[in-house]
Amino acid sequence: MKKQYIRPFLWGMAVGSIVLLIVIFSAGWVVTSGSAQAQARDIAADAVLDRLAPISVAQFMEDPNKEARFKEMIALDSWKRGDFVKSQGWARMPGEKESDSRVAVECARRLGDLKM
Fold this sequence. Notes:
- The protein has 116 residues and is mostly helical.
- The protein has a domain at 44-113.
- It is 74% helix and 0% strand.
């Protein structure tokens, strides 16, 4: 290689490698440990939610006034239904002191899908 081509070649290599790294990381082809941990946390939270929401629906089914309470909940705006479920105690798991708001929202969503 001629001496006059070395400097443009090195600059091209440097710029090309930087562009390649930007494309690889922005496209999501490389998973860093931080993004993998965040994804694992989200998956675990969703799995716990999928296990607890049916329990809260079952607690609703045990309520002696479920028809009246169901009508009250359906009359509310959709964004208030989670708070209603939480206040009724259906989202409180056995042995827990407080209801989980994510479980309450998911329970309200599942109850909204029920045909009563």
